[in-house]
Amino acid sequence: MINKNFGFGTQIRKSPYFDSTVKWGATGFSVYNHMYIPRDFGSPEQNFWNLIEKAILCDVAVERQVEITGPDAYKFTQLLTPRDLSKLEVGQCKYVLIVNNDGGILNDPVLLRLAENHFWLSLADSDILLWAQGVAVNSGLNVKITEPDVSPLQLQGPNSGKIMIKLFGEDIQSLKYYWLREYSLDGIPLIVSRTGWSSELGYEIYLRDGSKGNDLYEKIMEAGKEHGLKPGHTSSIRRIEGGMLSYHADADINTNPFELGLDRLINLDSEINFVGKEALKKIKKEGIKRKQVGLELHCEPLKGPNTTFWSIYNNDKEIGKVTSAVYSPRLKKNIALAMLSIDHTEIGGKFKFKTNNNEFDCSVVEKPFYDPKKKIASS
Q: Which mean pLDDT values do the consecutive 10-residue runs of the chain (379 residues) have?
């Protein structure tokens, strides 16, 4: 029986899809970007199998958009990110980092370019609207920065393409990985992109009118019925298999891009100017003191993702922490992302980690743990 007494307050926003998610079985929520997100539709393991075998629909309206417009929108957007945007075309998306003046990561959004000077930053869990507006004050650039009425859904899994064809026609098949297109579904205004936080084939459907949220959710569920579509939530199992970051867990304001192996997103040799450039140059020159690695945890199957950081030791000396851990039913092992001191990051290293006052073995392995070249998502 669903417990609908969630105790919600007005200080945290509800998604436009809230009523539909409860109707379809959401029994637990957490807070992300000052908004409730459904996190429980039953077994997380079943949610994982639903994702990788057929398809799931996830309410990710919490991925709030920062909209940047105005005559200097391109120049300003480049100022926000170390990634070179000179080849970003209208209709294209890119995974980018936003760093502060010390080179610390503030967010790792997907950037969408809707027009020559019209951009969305589709956010992870931090207040980049406030950051961007603050940077704009003394930038000398003519831009407008707002949070638009835009709320994404994620349709992810191997059958997502078939469901999208039923909704939008055969034309949707030509939409390339990390590109976007504008659509109207029975009068509902949308942007659709070939992106998602699952490492599976998938799409994000950006609703541009919050009053039509439940209508859109129901239309997609109906279209997906014959293809095994289930309501779901973003899968911790699959995203850790794919080595995908979760902000506040695997990265935060005290983490720099080089520690995460994201050098490809940092352009220090070009003429582009961005916040944090000098700090990142210094970090690169001096070298990093720690680095993210993949781990296998040699203990009984974990009952769920970790809810605290677990310390890692070498000969009783603390050398790092487990940031995200889960049992993968497909790989039949406990897998984790961890931050280790740089001199302990070689593949094959064997250490101890502690959780709940218990000590277990762990070993450093290659990451991502599954489909490292992202062939599934980009197919």
A: 62 95 95 95 97 98 98 98 98 98 98 98 97 97 98 98 98 98 98 97 98 98 98 97 97 98 96 97 98 98 96 97 98 98 98 94 98 93
* pLDDT computed for residue 2 by the predictor: 44
Q: Supply the pTM of this predicted model.
A: 0.96
**Can you read off the two tokens belonging to residue 25?**
């079985």
Phi first, then psi, for residue 356 (nearest 5°) are 50, 40
**Angle (CA) 40 375 217, round 5°:** 35
CB 290 within 8 A of CB 341: yes
User: Where exactly are the structural domains of the chain?
Assistant: 18-62+150-240, 65-146, 289-379
Distance, CA of 151 to CA of 210 (rounded, Å) = 7
Q: What pLDDT is recorded for position 177?
A: 98
Taking CA atoms, 97 is separated from 37, 48, 108, 208, 247, in Å, by 23, 27, 4, 25, 11
Nearest-angstrom CA–CA distance, 173 and 156: 15
Q: How many residues does the chain have?
A: 379
- Domain 289-379 of CATH type 2.60.120.330: no
Give the other-Cβ count within 10 Å of 69's Cβ.
19
The whole-angstrom separation of Cα 361 and Cα 365 is: 13
Which H helix or E strand runs over 135?
helix 128-137
pLDDT of residue 71: 98
Instruction: Give the CA distances from residue 39 to residues 84, 233, 300, in Å, rounded to whole numbers and listed in that order.
Output: 35, 6, 24
Q: Please name the helix (run of DSSP H) or strand (run of DSSP E) that holds residue 31, with its range, or none.
A: strand 28-32
CATH no., domain 18-62+150-240: 3.30.1360.120
Per CATH, which fold does 65-146 belong to? Alpha-Beta Plaits (3.30.70)
Tell me whether domains 18-62+150-240 and 65-146 share a fold.
no
CA distance 322 to 308: 9
Give me 306's structure tokens: 């970790």
Which among 113, 55, 121 is positioned nearest to 89, based on CA atoms? 113
371: left (phi over 0), alpha (psi -120 to 50) or beta: left
66 and 135 in contact (C-beta within 8 Å)? no
pLDDT score of 379: 85
Assign 296 to helix, strand or coil: strand
